[in-house]
Design a protein that fits this description.
There is one protein chain. The protein has helices spanning about 20-25, 25-35, 50-60, 75-80, 105-120, 125-135, 145-150, 150-160, 170-180, 190-215, 220-230, 235-250, 255-270, 270-280, 285-295, 325-330, 365-380; strands spanning about 40, 45-50, 145, 300-305, 310, 315, 320-325, 385, 395, 405, 410. The protein contains 17 helices and 11 strands. Strand 1 (about 40) and strand 2 form a beta hairpin. It has a single domain, classed as Cytochrome P450 (Cytochrome p450). Helix 5 (about 105-120) packs across helix 11, helix 10 packs across helix 12 (about 235-250) and helix 15 packs across helix 17. The strands form 4 sheets. Strands 1-2-7-4 form a 4-stranded mixed β-sheet. A 3-stranded antiparallel β-sheet has the order 3-11-8. By secondary structure, the protein is α+β, with helices and mostly antiparallel strands. It binds protoporphyrin IX containing FE (HEM). Protoporphyrin IX containing FE binds near residues 254, 296, 355 and 365. Protoporphyrin IX containing FE binds near residues 108, 254, 360 and 365.
């Protein structure tokens, strides 16, 4: 295609709502990165970046903003569909995902302290939850690994860490699916209604749970956080509730997709699967290579806090950036033979978890879950294979996420 005939993809064509992108995002992202690595999408009101070097530099820059309130009115993608409430403190309207300092650091610090201490002690529970899920699978018939395993495991794990009642897990899964629609800028009225119902239910659930744990602590993250509050951590109950909800939602779909994407890639690449079976010590690199090759989250965002220039393109304060982590992870300038899935790549400096001040707080948990899940799945099913190796993958259509709707397997 000549320079003259190249048409920039619209923002919709950069989501799985577009069948071409859904089937193969890199058929769109490769030419975009090669021809126009920084461009402004006027409909979305954002600069779109695809080169590894630019993406890495932006997500690592702690002086940039994340809170949409700092974005220009034209930044429609960053600002979302609803008006930003002006009468509520930002930290009581948004999770750390879209807060700026000092609120971001004030809340993220105690949350990280309590969360990471729990994850460090949680390995046996992760193993137990995974074993129980695997025991439910009948290997004599074809089964869908997504619904049987990849969907329930992460929600059971995060719910157990948070101390959510086991009896309410089914409701939690539904609420989590509803809430994730908040990240879907193209959601339907039905999806919006589901989101609002789920948000109200979770607000009610966590408000009660926080009050109960303060009165009577248990061995869970909610109790850890109420204890830190008592010891002086400057975080309100509303802030705590919003950020516990963010952990529940953030820890759910993304990890589901990571496990599903990894198993599919290993089955499509029998040589890589054989390497892993022969040396389970390769599980760390196998998960990192999946995160590079097929990241569950396509994009993240930042907002310019000053005049900047990126690859010769001038940027003004309050202009928004949408950085394509997926495109950066397949940049041939950074990764040799980037479209090859190779679990023995020497290093994996991918950007699947973003970077800088906002780097994914759940990364250690996602890694622990995925590593444990993948090893246990391949150990339990020594003859695991795709039910129909010629069938095209069935991807979900949620914008900016990449995960399988189904993964039909034979054991
Ligand atoms: C494979 C799984 C996961 C992927 C690919 C993923 C990806 C991401 C990305 C790209 C960001 C934005 C980073 C940035 O802007 O620099 C993020 C932030 C975040 N993630 Fe994850 N995530 C995963 C798992 C989890 C889990 C397990 C949890 C919680 C249990 C979680 C909770 C969060 C939260 C709360 C933030 C906001 C952090 C902040 O802004 O300070 N994520 N994640």
């Amino acid at each position: 295609m000549s320079e003259e005939t190249y048409a920039l993809p619209s923002i919709l064509q950069l989501t799985p709502l577009d069948p071409g992108y859904r089937a193969d995002p890199h058929a769109t992202l490769d030419p975009l990165r090669a021809r126009c690595p920084v461009h402004r999408d006027e409909t979305a009101g954002t600069f779109i970046l695809t080169r590894y070097e630019d993406v890495r530099a932006l997500v690592s820059d702690r002086t940039l903003w994340r809170d949409p309130i700092n974005a220009e009115p034209a930044a429609r993608l960053s600002r979302g569909l609803e008006a930003i409430p002006a009468d509520v403190p930002r930290s009581e309207a948004s999770s750390i995902l879209t807060l700026d300092d000092p609120d971001h650091a004030r809340i993220r610090q105690p949350l990280t302290q309590a969360f990471y201490a729990r994850i460090a002690r949680f390995k046996p529970d992760v193993e137990r939850i995974i074993d129980q899920a695997l025991e439910q699978i009948d290997p004599t018939k074809p089964f869908d690994l997504m619904s049987a395993f990849c969907v329930p495991v992460p929600i059971d794990v995060i719910a157990a860490i948070l101390g959510v009642d086991h009896a309410r897990l089914v409701e939690f899964r539904d609420w989590s699916e509803g809430l994730i629609q908040g990240l879907n800028p193209f959601r339907t009225p039905e999806q919006t209604a589901h989101m609002e119902r789920s948000s109200a239910a979770l607000t009610d659930y966590f408000a009660r749970a926080i009050a109960e744990r303060r009165a009577q602590p248990k061995d869970d993250l909610i109790s850890d956080m109420t204890r830190l509050q008592t010891e002086g951590a400057p975080i309100s109950d509303i802030e705590l509730r919003i950020n516990l909800t963010a952990l529940l939602v953030g820890g759910n779909l993304t990890t589901t997709d990571l496990i599903g994407n990894a198993i599919r890639l290993l089955l499509l690449n029998p040589g890589e699967l054989a390497k892993l079976r022969a040396d389970p010590g390769l599980i760390g690199p196998a998960v990192e290579e999946t995160l590079r090759y097929e990241p569950p989250v396509d994009v993240t965002g930042r907002i310019a806090s000053r005049d900047m220039e990126i690859s010769g393109c001038p940027i003004k304060p309050s202009q928004s950036f949408t950085v394509f982590l997926r495109a950066a992870n397949r940049d041939p300038e950074r990764f040799e033979d980037p479209h090859r899935f190779d679990i023995s790549r020497p290093r994996h400096p991918h950007v699947a978890f973003g970077g800088g001040a906002h780097i994914c707080i759940g990364a250690p948990l996602a890694r622990l879950e995925a590593q444990t899940a993948i090893l246990k799945v391949i150990a339990r099913f020594p003859n695991l294979r795709l039910a129909d190796p010629d069938a095209p993958a069935v991807w979900r259509t949620l914008p900016f996420f990449r995960g399988l709707e189904r993964l039909d397997l034979l054991a």
